[in-house]
Design brief:
The chain is an alpha/beta fold and 289 residues long. It is 38% helix and 19% strand. It contains eleven helices and nine strands. This is Release factor glutamine methyltransferase.
Length: 289
């Protein structure tokens, strides 16, 4: 990005040129993303940039911004560049070992909290395929009396989730383990959460490059029909749910009927779905019996 990363250039000039670079790379909302990256490089808030666009960008910040811009133009996700992502009320560390938490998944948290007449009934929580720990930690943040465990096949993801619990003041009520779904667990849970991999294997290459190239395939690939992880989880749910317990699973677009059919074959009842902000049926609520 010639010229834009020269120390001493103004904030306004940096943002203008960076927006052009990102627009040429096919990035949506290029000016918005340029502001996020420059604010991160300068260690300030985005509104501070807008307040004084004639302010000079220091040399160290210019270099950091130039590198961040290069990565973003190559479709590295912003969350990976910043190393952080907001979810629910939480600030979460992210890495290439975990799926980036998305606002769509907040529907799972909403559905979980709404599934109980009183949230005090949520005592033990299980999050299968926990990734950053987003779902589990969001529920624990809303239910002070609850305790939970998150499981992820990737040891690096489980370790990252544990760091997120500590950073958000929830380490005393959350434990994270590396394992193959529930194989390392015993006991029953009042609430089981999961955002399983649900993309059909052959469809992954057609996803936006930020996802297809940079997010872990383990967290995306749901097998030939996208339903492999659901079959595994739903077969185990009757043994995992405590009496009166609920499970909330994230769905991919158009998957409700297929997942409900698998659930019914395992003796599980569908209690309905909650849509995300885009109107997609996103959170399926299930009960045993």
């Amino acid at each position: 990005m010639s010229g834009c990363a020269d120390p001493g250039g103004s904030v306004g000039a940096f943002l203008c040129q960076a927006g052009q670079v990102l627009r040429a790379a096919g990035i949506e909302a290029p000016r918005l993303e340029a502001r996020r990256l420059l604010a991160h490089a300068m260690g300030c808030r985005e509104e501070d940039l807008l307040r004084d666009p004639r302010a000079a960008v220091p040399g160290g910040a210019a270099a950091a911004f130039g590198e961040a811009l290069r990565r973003r133009a190559a479709h590295v996700p912003v969350a990976h560049i910043l190393g952080r992502q907001g979810f629910w009320t939480l600030d979460l560390e992210v890495s290439a070992d975990t799926l980036i938490p998305r606002a769509d998944s907040e529907a799972i948290v909403e559905a979980a909290l709404a599934a109980f007449p009183a949230t005090e009934a949520i005592g033990r929580v299980l999050d299968l395929g926990t990734g950053t720990g987003a779902l589990l930690l969001a529920v624990l943040a809303e239910v002070p009396g609850a305790w939970g465990v998150g499981v992820d096949l990737a040891p690096a993801a489980a370790a990252l989730a544990a760091r997120n619990a500590a950073a958000n003041g929830l380490a005393g009520r959350a434990a994270f383990v590396a394992g193959d779904w529930d194989s390392a667990l015993s006991g029953r849970f009042d609430l089981v959460l999961s955002n399983p991999p649900y993309i059909a294997s052959e469809d992954i290459g057609g996803l936006m490059p930020e996802v297809a190239r940079h997010e872990p395939r383990l967290a995306l690939d749901g097998g030939a029909d996208g339903l492999g992880a659901y079959r595994r989880i739903l077969a185990r749910l009757p043994a995992l749910l405590a009496p009166g317990g609920r499970a909330v699973l994230e769905l991919g677009v158009g998957q409700r009927a297929a997942v409900e059919a698998i659930a019914a074959a395992e003796g599980l009842r569908s209690l309905g779905v909650r849509a995300d902000l885009g109107g997609v049926e996103r959170a399926l609520v299930l009960a045993a019996g």
